[in-house]
Every structure is written in C-alpha cells, then in structure tokens.
Amino acid sequence: MRIVDFRGKWCAVVHVGGKRFRRSLGNLDATPDNYPAAQRACADLERAIAQPKSDTIADIVDAYLADTKAITSEYMRWMWGVLKPHCAGLRPDQIDRGWCREYASKRGKAPATIRKEISFLAAAIRWAKGDAGGGAVFELPSPPPPRDRWLTRPEFMRLLDAAQPHPHLVTFLHLALATGARKEAILELTWPQVDFSAGRIFLGNKPGGKARAVVPMTKSLRTVLQAQNQRREDSGYVVEYGGAKVGNIKKAFATAARNAGLDDVTPHDLRHTAAVWMAADGVSMEKIAQYLGHSDHKITERVYARFSPDHLKDAAAALEI
C-alpha cells in the first residue's frame, strides 16, 4: 500500500486479489503538512483490510502475518506451516488445555519448541481477539533450564583453529565474539555498516525496525575484516561464501565444533561468551547491556553479574571472623 496525490487529495493505492484500487484517506489535501495524517490514515486502513475474513484460526493467523509483515520472519511462517494441519479449521474457543497437550504429544518435539509454537498461535489469536483470546485457553510446557554454556579462551582458539578450512566461518567467529551480536545480525551485516575510519560497526536494525547496537571494532577484528574486505566478492555481505550471502552458518559451525571437541557449543553461545568475558574483566553491567543491545541493564545483571570478579565480595567480607 502506498500514498499518492490524486486530484489534489492524498489517497492510498491498495492491491487486493491482484487488482488495484484507490481508497480515500479522509479528504486530506495533498500538502506536505497533511502527509503525516495521511500516513496515520493509511496505517489504519491497512489494519482494517488485514482483519480476518472469518473466525477460523487459518484466517486469523493469515491476517496476523499480513498485518505484522514488517516483523514477520521465515521462522514464523514455518511455525504456521507446522501448526496449520492441527488447527486451521478450528475457532479460538476450541483451543484449550486438552488441545495444547494433544498438539505437544503429536509433535513429539522438545518443550522449548512446543512453547515457541503455541506462543506464536496465542499471539495471533490475541492480536485478533484481544487479551481474552476469544475464549482460547493455552497451556505451555514447563520452560527448559536456562542454557549456561560459554567458551574459555583456549576453547575459542580451538574452535577458531578448526574453522580455518572455512574462511566465511572464521569471519563469523571473529564477528560473533568481538560484537556479541546474534547470528542473524552477523549474517545480515553489509560492508556499509563497517566504518573502518571510526573503528565502529553498526549492527543494523531488528525486524521491527529498532536499531541494534553500535560497537567498537577490536584490533583483532579490524585485521580480519580488512583482509576479508580485500578478498571479498560482490555479494555486499561481510560473511559470504562463493560470492553470495550465507543463509545459515549452522552446518559449518557444527563441523568445526565437532572437530574441536566442542560438540555442545552453538553459535549463540558466542554471544554468551562475549558477555561472560566482559563481566569477568570487570566491565560494568551497564556497558555490557549497551554492547549486547539490552534495553534494561537489569536483564544483563541478572544473568552476568555472578561472573564479575567483585560479585558479592562485600557480602562475603561481612562474614569474616
């Protein structure tokens, strides 16, 4: 949907069912001063068009994905593909604890996976029906214990050595450790986001549009990126393979981890590792939170304060005899 000037009035051009329509945005004169109001009216129109065609789960989720297209990921669409055979023709009030338990049993996946899928379904229904959820009742499996794996420096060097046959993985590992960024942000990183003159890396925007962190470039990362920049091909992405963007690092990472004797390590553990190393070196929780892009340093403190060298030392001092 886009806003156009039609006969001196702002209106929206809408494409529905392969056909093009013009819709009024409230008789607004096509002036710059009225453009913000036209944008708001256009957003209201998009929401109205996106409303479900019927009360079935299928129409509700399809409308939800269309309305949230700015933040919809391929993983969300994949989850809907998994859920669809189990609930497409149901109404929200037919989703209850019994359905949730039956779904979990039939899926036969880990509790964390089931939680994500049912939570996605709940978000779609509440988007359409409000907090009451149209009578839907959800039950989630108990959350798994938090993962607490991080790499020591010798372990990271072993992983780095095992990655040498795969230059794109070497670049990824250096970026993951030095930026503390999530896998998705690293694989989306393009060269204009790397500022060699200022020594900074802008990690881009999240799917919803919110900016991620801007982090300093370490000396070791600068060396790696400058070498990569000289031999880069034409994909535009910092992490590339065969002149194309790397869609997923999982296979190469798993191979290197296995060869390094680190079978229990995942790409996300490198973000955890970066935070642990900073905390252990005495970096404040506020700075670590900024580095990781946490909106509240209390989140960071809850997870990483125990790695700080001074953590609870004053409390222990009170117990001296």
TrEMBL record:
Keywords: DNA integration, DNA recombination. GO terms for biological process: DNA integration; DNA recombination. The keyword DNA damage does not apply. Coiled coil: none annotated. The keyword Repeat does not apply. GO terms for molecular function: DNA binding. Pfam families: Phage_integrase. PANTHER family: PHAGE INTEGRASE-RELATED, PROPHAGE INTEGRASE INTD-RELATED. This is Integrase. It comes from Paramagnetospirillum magneticum (strain ATCC 700264 / AMB-1) (Magnetospirillum magneticum).
